[in-house]
Amino acid sequence: MVELTRALTSTRTGRALPAAALAPYKLVVADIEGTTTDIAFVHSTLFPYARARLGEYLRDPAHARDPAVLDIVEALVSQSRIDGADDKFVPVIKHSTDLDEVVTYLEWLMSNDRKVAPLKTLQGLIWEHGYNAGTLRGHVYCDVVPALYYWHAVRVPVAIYSSGSVHAQKLLFGASEYGHLKPLLAAYFDTAVGPKTDATSYTAILSRLAEQFPEMTLAANDVLFLSDNPAELAAAAEAGWQVALAVRPGNPLVTDDAIATYPTFTDFSQLIAPHTHARPSSPIVAATKRARSLSGPKPDVASSPESPAAKRHRKN
């Protein structure tokens, strides 16, 4: 199926066809970071927010006795010993009651961009506290919102597949800067289903979606996967899915090769045509403009470094 995806590209120009060249689809699965949400929000807002509160959260008496938190700590102890067996510089947790050791190991995991389950779960709990307190609001690109409403209206289910935990995904969309968006999303998946660069993960997701929506008689190529990561797109395409590359400001993974391999989009409104054959004057474009005009405080999102290929693509 990777070869099928490559066949969508223009061999004369070396540039990918737009997302409008995709075949009709019945269901959308979207990545978050770099696709629905600015990468900088994750790296410059969410991660620092959690890191600064690791010790405070674990030492809070209300959390220290929470069975879920105790399970997280025990899982961290086990994971630290596994990591320490392979690397002598890992700050192994010797005693689960030593929260200084636990925090040091958590900081090591974050510094090394390790996406282990207990860390992700703990981050989700800390973010939940921030969202509930109103100190965090989930960043969602303004063009995503009207597309979600549109797909919901025409009964095209939208699911999320992200390396962040399902809990964290629901928090982001449940307390977004555009309000409560969870009713527009049909399902959530994280790496518990498998790595995002492994084709079997997408096969497993398709199986679950087919069970959730039996009336749709889903085939692999009925699903459209959206991501800024070419390795994820390759895995989804290998599983038979249709794929499209998100070319957003600050997406460092977008290369010339990726742009020449996959259908691309810079705005979710460009993804409507494959399903509805909508024209540029369609209501989705007007809805996108209305979403852009929404007022209200936005998260302080600093721009991430943008790949030269993405910058050239957006200017063309």
What does this protein look like?
Helix 5 crosses helix 7 (117-133). By secondary structure, this protein is of the alpha/beta class. It has 15 helices and 6 strands. The chain starts with a helix and ends with a helix. Helix content is 47%, strand content 7%. Strand 2, helix 9 (166-174) and strand 3 form a beta-alpha-beta unit. Residues 1-14, 277-281 and 294-304 have low confidence and may be disordered. It is globular, with a radius of gyration of 20 Å. A 6-stranded parallel β-sheet has the order 3-2-1-4-5-6, with helices on both faces.
SSE inventory with pairings:
Elements: H1 2-6, E1 27-30, H2 39-52, H3 54-59, H4 61-64, H5 67-86, H6 99-111, H7 117-133, H8 144-153, E2 158-161, H9 166-174, E3 187-189, H10 199-212, E4 223-227, H11 230-238, E5 242-246, H12 256-259, E6 264-265, H13 273-276, H14 283-292, H15 308-315
Parallel strand pairs: 1-2, 1-4, 2-3, 4-5, 5-6
Helix pairs in contact: 2-7, 5-7, 7-9, 8-14, 10-11
Key structural traits:
six-stranded parallel β-sheet, 316 residues, alpha/beta, 7% strand
Short description:
The protein is of the alpha/beta class. Helix content is 47%, strand content 7%. Helix 7 (117-133) runs parallel beside helix 9, helix 8 crosses helix 14 and helix 10 crosses helix 11 (230-238).
